[in-house]
Amino acid sequence: MKDRTRSSAHPAPVAADQAGDSMMAEERRQKILSLLHSDGRVLVTNLSKLFNLSQITIRKDLDSLHSRGLVQRSHGGALLPSSRTLFDPSLQEKQQLRTQEKQRIAAAAAKMVRDGSCVMLDSGTTTAAIAQVLKKFSALTVITNAINIAAELTSTNVEVILTGGTLRKNSFSLVGPVAEDVLAEMHADILFLGVDGFDLEVGLTTPNLQESRVNRAMVSSAAKVVAVCDSSKFYRRSLSRIMPISALHHVITDHGVPQAVVDALRKLNIEVTLV
């Protein structure tokens, strides 16, 4: 009887975590974001008490939000991220990020391609991963403004059309009026478009103005537009707008994308593939 009383008065911490975990992880993370926007900072210890969860679980939540660019991790908690609208990492830096997600996205994109079709690829590490998968095709035309993608496909049966233009060394991409004029004369069955920012209100964005103009020319020349991006790109905004969300036909991303985003896209009749 004595043991039962002591047990009742001091419930095991694990039980508290199990009760707290009844709240969906994504719903909890959205509440954390709301608190962060309200207070400017959140602490692991306070969130642990608020949600009746272990600090380990809360740290995982904050790490997930940080990987998507939604918070900035700090000692003991998180802060609102500094502005990323002008953030323009190099191609080499991007190649180190989320490689497994990009490979899964590339495999899903390849399933949308048929021999004999014309595919357009913009510059970026996700589209570079797609180019690697397209090597297996025997009769394909690829239009691109990325010199690294053109080089990747040189020893294959894929016919490559490189737009020409002024080289952006940071991204290995060709931009400017020459690239835009060439794209205006082209037609592709499908465009795989990588982006730096994907926001439901602002649309698809990139930090470079010249890059966005070339991207818009690609969108105008493609019968089908497919955004290919990992989940860290959502809720991000960069300097230059490429297109509104409504102009998309399909989105391929990983399972880390918030369910609210998936639901909003599908309400707009945009197909979503999660990998």
Short description:
The chain has 275 residues and is α/β, with parallel strands linked by helices.
Number of strands: 15
Question: What is the fold-level CATH name, i.e. the topology of the largest domain?
Answer: Rossmann fold
- Strands of the largest sheet, in order across it? 6-5-4-9-12-14-15
Number of domains: 2
User: Helical element count?
Assistant: 12
What's the mean pLDDT score? Answer: 86
Q: Output the radius of gyration.
A: 22 Å
End-to-end separation: 53 Å
* Order of secondary-structure elements: HHHEHHEEHHEHEHEEEHEEEHEEEHE
Q: Tell me about the biggest sheet?
A: 7 strands, parallel
Unreliable stretches: 1-22
User: So, CATH architecture of the largest domain?
Assistant: 3-Layer(aba) Sandwich
User: What is the CATH domain class of the largest domain?
Assistant: Alpha Beta
Structural class estimated from helices and strands:
alpha/beta
Q: Which descriptor suits the 3D outline?
A: elongated
Q: Assign a percent range to the helix content.
A: 40-55%
